[in-house]
Amino acid sequence: MQHDTEKTKKQPAADFLRPSSFDDMVGQERLVGKNGILRRLSERGSFPSVIFFGPPGTGKTTAAAILAESSGCELYKLNATTATLSDVREVASASGSVTGSDGVVLYLDEIQYFNKKQQQSLLQYIENGSITLIASTTENPYYYIYDALLSRCAVFEFKKVAAADIVKRLEKVTSDMGEMGRISRDALTLIANTSAGDVRRAVNMTELALRTYPDGIIESENVSELLPSVSMGSFDRDGDTHYDLLSCLQKSIRGSDPDAAVFYLARLLEGGDIISPCRRLMVIASEDIGAAYPMAAVITRACVESAKELGLPEARIPLANAAVMLATAPKSNTAYLALDAAAADIKAGLGVEVPLHLRSPLFKGYKYPHDYPNRYVSQQYLPDDLKDKKYYTFGENKTEQTAKKYWDAIKGKDKK
Fold first, then answer.
1. What SS3 class is residue 333?
2. Which residues contact 26 (CB under 8 A, 6 or more apart)?
3. Of the candidates 382, 376, 390, which has an alpha carbon nearest to the alpha carbon of residue 357?
4. Which of 305, 104, 110 is nearest to 118 (CA)?
5. HSE of 360, CA atoms in CB hemisphere, 13 A
6. Residue 106 β-bridge partners
7. Distance CA 41, CA 32 (A)
8. How remote is the C-alpha of 100 from its chain's centroid?
9. What is the pTM of this model?
10. pLDDT tens readout for residues 35-92
């Protein structure tokens, strides 16, 4: 039996026609396909606490319900945007009841909205077996979920569903609704292509079309009248445009083209997305501007935080400032390349033994730079097998060349 704290007067088709088995799900082949991880756990009838993350409408809630059903346990649902610690305790107490004698499964949606204390409260129930947790989030769990909870859960990523797979689901939905054939395949394909990999969005749009046009065959033109312009302009037939736009934004900024940068930013924002461009702008500040203008990362962070606090439409203003600033700033990837070169040597097994004089105060031989002229003294910092390795090369921009001039000056005055 499922217990849901959110009662609705009438369920939309996406809910009452939700798949009841992994066979009916589309997409997520790696997780729910014939040899999928979740399918194998389901066949065993037991599973550990898990965290599902990925975009909306990709099957997280559906997979949770199917997984819980296979275990024979009571399933309770909470949403972290409204749930309290009392709600969690109430679910945990059900494990001692007659109906919960086999254990209970708690499906906690949007877990990223639980604060640290709330997330920590889950630990005792997971550890004593009162609750098997299935948590879902649209955000990266490694940023929003605390390590102590992550270490006790298996993490599974759900990805956007391909348009062709969404069409298959829409055909099944229209058949189950008794509307098979009343909406053309071209119209279903258009809905799938403009759903951005979100099955729920596609099913809801299909239901809307069927309700809006109760008579006759529904064609692509009818569906086009129902689609918002931002959806039509933001996603292509393969559902990949969203990621293409992010790539175009970064390459335009890297190429110092502010006009293209604000264009692609506008495309993303018109599609209703704030989080993705915010993240990409912060990456760009360090990857493409980097040491040429170190303050770019600080300024971008401030603009991003302002945008998140403001929300759309005002968020576009600080994000535009960030995009233009980054596009017109000097560029350098020297720090990024230096790190990659060092990482390559580490993966090759080099640099295992660090110099003795750098380890701890117990080891003698370390020279304290502040005790020397210009706060510099020559000594070995890299491991012996890498002591002559050069990872970082100064860029040609003004900032790095100024640093190089200072670097050369103090090394030239070195008194060993």
1. coil
2. 59, 161, 165, 166, 168, 169, 199
3. 382
4. 110
5. 1
6. 76, 133
7. 10
8. 34
9. 0.55
10. 899 999 999 888 899 999 988 899 999 999 999 888 888 889 999 999 999 999 888 8
